[in-house]
Amino acid sequence: MHLTLEFAGGAELLFGKQKKHSIDLPENSTPWTIRTLLVWIRENLLRERPELFIQGDSVRPGILVLINDTDWELFDGLNYQLKTNDNILFVSTLHGG
Amino acid sequence: MPWRTTSRLGTFCGVFRRQALDRGAMKLAVNKIATGHNADDIAETILMNILRGDIARLKRCTSIITGDESDENEASTIPRCKPLKYAYEKEIVLYAFYKRLDYFSTECLYSPNAYRGNIRTYIKDLERLRPSSIIDIIHSGEQLIVKQTAKMPVQRVCERCSYCSSMPICKACLLIEGLNKGVPKLGIGKTERYRKEMQKQDQCCSDQSLCHCMKEKLTVKEKD
């Protein structure tokens, strides 16, 4: 399944400073959700300091998730089932000191 | 444990930056300073002041304008305002993203371990359970009234540098003295003893003292 992942607001620093990632998820017996995508991201894409991106089975509080430019809370959040060519944007709001 | 050594570093940074901002503004003869504090910041500050028992700051921190001369408890510094007081950080970040505004987004390395860092995590977790938490905390903070009989610090002027201060010697001077005298915790935590000693006599740069500048002079002499 082909997806576009975008990282902004400082989150890109954890992914080799690359803001846009074009990825292909392998076929799976159960449908891909944001929850399983996060596991995949941590194992395949996250370069450093996973605790700054992921907390438990979700994103660290303060990181916004947008699915096709819409707040994930308007969908099913972690349980949203990914569709091919979806655009998932992760924006960090954690700045300063 | 990292917590003990890095949890008070925000004090140095915040105190010096704020004074630098004030002093710079005075030189430019500015009549108001606008800061970018947003709703998340204000909510954090309210909780921080409650947890620290800082009633003076708690009273001031929800005002959208501070340092106004009309309040006789405020020393006459340049008034400050927070135009984004009710704007969520989330709104600001998404605005900047969609308008493609370039901004400095690096999180300070010490901030997750700082006192405010713990509160920030707590508020973010609260927000997850109840999205209106942040604005609710601000609303509650605004409703707080301090008893007339509560002991409040009196605004006066620092004996060393004449900056406004609630203590005889302002926080910035205290921090610098601590660094010069090799007592870096001065101004951070309970150092009543040291503070009293400092106020007795200015011992810096006398022959018997071991302050930083004196140490350097000794080293130079040895090399000759």
UniProtKB/TrEMBL annotation, chain A:
<comment type="similarity">
    <text>Belongs to the URM1 family.</text>
</comment>
<dbReference type="GO" id="GO:0034227">
    <property type="term" value="P:tRNA thio-modification"/>
</dbReference>
<comment type="pathway">
    <text>tRNA modification; 5-methoxycarbonylmethyl-2-thiouridine-tRNA biosynthesis.</text>
</comment>
<dbReference type="GO" id="GO:0032447">
    <property type="term" value="P:protein urmylation"/>
</dbReference>
<keyword id="KW-0833">Ubl conjugation pathway</keyword>
<dbReference type="GO" id="GO:0002098">
    <property type="term" value="P:tRNA wobble uridine modification"/>
</dbReference>
<keyword id="KW-0963">Cytoplasm</keyword>
<comment type="function">
    <text>Acts as a sulfur carrier required for 2-thiolation of mcm(5)S(2)U at tRNA wobble positions of cytosolic tRNA(Lys), tRNA(Glu) and tRNA(Gln). Serves as sulfur donor in tRNA 2-thiolation reaction by being thiocarboxylated (-COSH) at its C-terminus by the MOCS3/UBA4 homolog. The sulfur is then transferred to tRNA to form 2-thiolation of mcm(5)S(2)U. Also acts as a ubiquitin-like protein (UBL) that is covalently conjugated via an isopeptide bond to lysine residues of target proteins.</text>
</comment>
<dbReference type="InterPro" id="IPR015221">
    <property type="entry name" value="Urm1"/>
</dbReference>
<dbReference type="InterPro" id="IPR016155">
    <property type="entry name" value="Mopterin_synth/thiamin_S_b"/>
</dbReference>
<keyword id="KW-0819">tRNA processing</keyword>
<dbReference type="InterPro" id="IPR012675">
    <property type="entry name" value="Beta-grasp_dom_sf"/>
</dbReference>
<dbReference type="Pfam" id="PF09138">
    <property type="entry name" value="Urm1"/>
</dbReference>
<feature type="cross-link" description="Glycyl lysine isopeptide (Gly-Lys) (interchain with K-? in acceptor proteins)">
    <location>
        <position position="97"/>
    </location>
</feature>
<dbReference type="GO" id="GO:0005829">
    <property type="term" value="C:cytosol"/>
</dbReference>
<protein>
    <recommendedName>
        <fullName>Ubiquitin-related modifier 1 homolog</fullName>
    </recommendedName>
</protein>
<feature type="modified residue" description="1-thioglycine">
    <location>
        <position position="97"/>
    </location>
</feature>
<keyword id="KW-1017">Isopeptide bond</keyword>
UniProtKB/TrEMBL annotation, chain B:
<dbReference type="InterPro" id="IPR014729">
    <property type="entry name" value="Rossmann-like_a/b/a_fold"/>
</dbReference>
<dbReference type="GO" id="GO:0002144">
    <property type="term" value="C:cytosolic tRNA wobble base thiouridylase complex"/>
</dbReference>
<dbReference type="GO" id="GO:0002143">
    <property type="term" value="P:tRNA wobble position uridine thiolation"/>
</dbReference>
<keyword id="KW-0808">Transferase</keyword>
<dbReference type="GO" id="GO:0000049">
    <property type="term" value="F:tRNA binding"/>
</dbReference>
<dbReference type="InterPro" id="IPR000541">
    <property type="entry name" value="Ncs6/Tuc1/Ctu1"/>
</dbReference>
<feature type="domain" description="tRNA(Ile)-lysidine/2-thiocytidine synthase N-terminal">
    <location>
        <begin position="16"/>
        <end position="120"/>
    </location>
</feature>
<dbReference type="Pfam" id="PF16503">
    <property type="entry name" value="zn-ribbon_14"/>
</dbReference>
<feature type="domain" description="Cytoplasmic tRNA 2-thiolation protein 1 C-terminal">
    <location>
        <begin position="158"/>
        <end position="186"/>
    </location>
</feature>
<dbReference type="GO" id="GO:0016740">
    <property type="term" value="F:transferase activity"/>
</dbReference>
<dbReference type="Pfam" id="PF01171">
    <property type="entry name" value="ATP_bind_3"/>
</dbReference>
<protein>
    <recommendedName>
        <fullName>Cytoplasmic tRNA 2-thiolation protein 1</fullName>
    </recommendedName>
</protein>
<dbReference type="InterPro" id="IPR011063">
    <property type="entry name" value="TilS/TtcA_N"/>
</dbReference>
<dbReference type="GO" id="GO:0005739">
    <property type="term" value="C:mitochondrion"/>
</dbReference>
<dbReference type="InterPro" id="IPR032442">
    <property type="entry name" value="CTU1_C"/>
</dbReference>
